[in-house]
Amino acid sequence: MADPPVAVPRTRTVRLVTALLAVLLAASGCASAGADGPTVRLAQFPWSAAKLTNAILGEVVAAHPELGVGRLKTIQVGPATAWAGAQRGDVDALTEVAMPNQSELAAKAEDRIELVHPTYSGAEQGWYVPSYAVEPGGPLAGLTGVTQLNDYADALGHRLVDSDPSFLTTEYNAKRLAGYRLDLEQVTSSEAAQIAELRRAYERRQPILVYLYRPHYIFEELALTKLTEPTPAREDCYTTGDGACAMPAYSAWTAASPDLARTSPGFAAMLRRFELPLADVEQMLQRVDVDNEDVEVVARDYVAAHPDRVRQWVGAGA
């Protein structure tokens, strides 16, 4: 999730986005070769689950030339830039598309690329605090929901520690702070910096408020409590609404250009069957982000350990 909002994505000119994607394409990584087929340009969002998903696809493509892909070329981009490229036909597929977070971006590109299948569903997102902080005697004792946060603003240093500014949820969080009229500053940085700050607070048993989403390795490492919301998620909350509502649970989708069905029909068909259990993703993320194992090794191990699932993806025997 995938996906998450603080800085509103800025409008880019076509010339700027085109130049940026050209640089990214030149510097992007490529998965191992599969068939003697075309290169598929695969967007890779700046969170670990996206890198892991693409690495798994790369392992499958390399082992199954019948899928009709010569190689996967990954392009490191944020959601807004990725969908701009997809709209112009510069990207063939996207994975880890967080829905409904990216629904507006997807709608703008629907004539060039389409959502084909969810990889996993039911992923939560929202604002979390360390569980020790809300225990009796803790610095945030009594805190259960977001509407209480002004009462605890001093203890929290008047800060919401958010993640990468390129995440769409960064924009949502900005609207949530305003909608709930909270006396908190939204602090964004890289996700790595955010998690480092969370770990430091945890080690010192200090209070901290962070935006987080699942799947994420940090839930395998730290005990965290999600704050409750007075208003359920609703479709218009972050567009025409005031932002004072829960962040929706989301699904991670794969999107692909209809042209893939012509150039690499086997791969296009596989994307319509590609699914990963959410629990499996978090376990793999712990190996990648906590144990510092190489993502390609983790992906290779997963593919080797789940041959029946891989056969289902590639349609063997179908």
Task: Describe what you observe in this structure.
With 318 residues, this protein is α/β, with parallel strands linked by helices. The chain is 37% helix and 18% strand. The chain is built from twelve helices and eleven strands. The strands form three sheets. It has a six-stranded mixed beta sheet, with helices on both faces. Helix 2 links the parallel strand 2 (39-44) and strand 3 (71-76). Helix 2 crosses helix 11 (295-305).
Layout of secondary structure:
Layout: H1 14-27, E1 29-30, E2 39-44, H2 48-63, E3 71-76, H3 79-88, E4 93-99, H4 103-108, E5 114-123, E6 125-130, E7 159-161, H5 169-179, E8 185-187, H6 191-203, E9 210-213, H7 218-221, E10 224-226, E11 250-256, H8 260-263, H9 265-271, H10 278-290, H11 295-305, H12 307-314
Parallel strand pairs: 2-3, 2-4, 7-8
Antiparallel strand pairs: 1-3, 4-11, 5-11, 6-9, 6-10
Helix pairs in contact: 2-11
